[in-house]
Specification:
Blueprint lengths: L2 E6 L6 E6 L7 H21 L5 H29 L1 E6 L4 E6 L6 E5 L5 E5 L8 E6 L2 E4 L6 H18 L1
Antiparallel strand pairs: 1-2, 2-3, 3-4, 4-5, 6-7, 7-8
Helix pairs in contact: 1-2
């Protein structure tokens, strides 16, 4: 599950902290495997031309293709690693911070006793769209999660909000 709950403070006034992040489909092992296969496939035309003058004509393009793919995957991984959401649920304040891949973080605060958690099964930008509403404002939560993960988060966060009230 790409989210984790932690608690801080004494048990009677503990604040729960939720961190959500998008699923990273290409981990370190997958990265190595992908580039080993890519290098092998790019080496085939190079090996066929070893010993001929045409090798020097194709070699810069093969190196550029490998380097371009490497740079694109690394850049995408760095941007995806920055994207996350932090929700802090304390007895008197609920705070949500959305940190996008680019740009400044966006924050929203409300009294947790007035917050309404809603799972929009249809009609949202994604299926099972999860929102928090309070003080006349509605914000999305975990839009980058899968449908099953949003449903699980809805149950989990709903239970915690109910216990807090």
């Amino acid at each position: 599950m790409p989210y984790r709950w932690t608690t801080t403070g004494p048990p009677e006034a503990a604040a729960a902290h939720l961190m959500l992040w998008p699923h990273q489909s290409l981990g370190p092992q997958g990265f190595v495997t992908f580039f080993a296969v890519t290098a092998s496939l790019l080496a085939l035309p190079v090996l066929a031309l070893v010993g001929s003058a045409a090798l020097w004509g194709i070699l810069p393009f093969v190196v550029a293709a490998f380097w371009g793919t490497w740079a694109a995957v690394r850049l995408n991984g760095r941007r995806a690693a920055r994207l996350h959401e932090d929700l802090t649920l304390a007895p008197e304040r609920l705070t949500l911070a959305h940190v996008p891949a680019r740009g400044p973080a966006q924050t929203w605060e409300a009294n947790p006793h007035w917050v309404r958690l809603t799972l929009h099964e249809k009609g949202g930008p994604v299926p099972d769209y999860l929102t928090l509403r309070a003080s006349g404002r509605e914000v999305e939560l975990g839009a980058f999660l899968s449908e099953d993960e949003r449903r699980a988060l809805y149950r989990d966060l709903g239970e915690r909000l109910a216990r807090l009230r």
